[in-house]
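Action item from last week, closing it out:
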Amino acid sequence: MEVNDLGFIASILFVLIPAVFLIILYIQTVSRENREDSQ
């Protein structure tokens, strides 16, 4: 099975971009909860 380089890159970006977005949202919510707990 030959993989097209452009398709491979597109697939990686298609998976990574939403994953990074979700990770950022998760970190923001966790840091907010930590701030509220410390106050």
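Closing note: The chain has one domain: 1-34.
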